[in-house]
Amino acid sequence: MTDYRELIASDLLKIKAVFLRPDEPFTWASGIKSPIYCDNRLTLTAPEVRTHVEEGLAHIVKTYYPEAEVLMGTSTAGIAHAAITAHILGMPMGYVRGSNKDHGRQNRIEGKLEPGQKVVVIEDLISTGGSVIEVVDALREAGAVVLGVASIFTYVMKKGLQRLADADVTNVSLTDFDEVVRVAAEQKYITEQDVGRLIAFRDDPSDESWIGGKR
User: Fold this and answer.
1) Residues 94 and 75: beta-carbon distance below 8 Å
2) DSSP SS3 for 112
3) N or C, which end of the chain is more exposed by having fewer CB within 10 Å?
4) In whole angstroms, how far apart are CA 162 and each of 130, 196, 208?
5) Which residues pair with 149 in a beta bridge?
6) Run of H or E residues at 68
7) Nearest alpha-carbon partner for 5 in 124, 161, 182
8) DSSP strands (E only) in the chain
C-alpha cells in the first residue's frame, strides 16, 4: 500500500509547494509570523505530483468515506482537486462558494445536490479550520449529510483540530506539518536544529520565541 503521508510530503517539498524558512519567516494575512508557507495550487502544474495527489484523495474517499455519493470542492483551491478525484471515482461533484454570488440564481453551492445526499468535502489545506467548517455548514444547511473532509495538507494546529472536533467535522489529510518537517530534515531541506523551532511554531503560532533560534 502506498504511504501517501511520506510520498506527498516529499512531492510538496520537491516542487516547492511547501517552503520551510525558519530564518526568514513569512507573514500570514492574520499577522502571524510563520516558518512555513504552503501553496498546493502548484500541484496542478506538476503532472506526476498531481497524479499522486488525486489518487491519494480518491484513496481517502474510498477507504474512509465509502458511502460518499457526491464530492464538493472548496472555492477556489479545492475545485480542481474535487473534479479530478471525482473523475477517477466516477462520481458527481460540485463546489461551494465563499459566499452567495450576487447575480443569476445567487447560488452558493454549484452543482446538483439533493437533500440527504452523502457528501465529502475536498480541501487543499487546513490551518485553523474556519474556512472548511463554513463550507460544511453551508452543505448541512442545504440538507446534505457531510461524511467528512479529504484534504491534501493540514497544519495539525491545536486550534484547528479543536474547531473541527467542536463542529463535528472529520478530516483525513494526505500529509501534515509533522510529516513534512520530518521528511524535510531527512532530505536536508532543513537542519535537525530547525525541527524543534518548527514544532514550537505548530504548538503555539502566537508565540514567536522560535524566531531566530531562541528555542
Assistant:
1) no
2) coil
3) N
4) 11, 23, 22
5) 121, 171
6) none
7) 182
8) 18-20, 26-27, 33-34, 36-38, 70-74, 93-96, 109-110, 118-126, 145-154, 171-176
Question: Residues for the chain: how many in total?
Answer: 215
- Are 102 and 96 in contact by the 8 Å Cβ rule? The answer is no
Q: What is the pLDDT of residues 105-154, one digit of tens each?
A: 557 899 999 999 999 999 999 998 999 999 999 999 999 999 999 999 99
Query: Which residue do the cell numbers 455548514 mark?
Result: 137
Weakest-pLDDT range from 12-26, 93-107, 174-188, 190-204: 93-107
Q: Which residues of 120-138 are buried (b: 16+ CB within 10 A; e: fewer)?
A: bbbbbbbbbbebbbebbeb
Placement of cell 445526499 in the chain: 117
For residue 90, which amino acid is it? G
- What single letter denotes the amino acid at residue 27? T
pLDDT value of residue 99: 59
User: Which of these, 211, 213, 215, 214, lies nearest to 26 by C-alpha position?
Assistant: 211
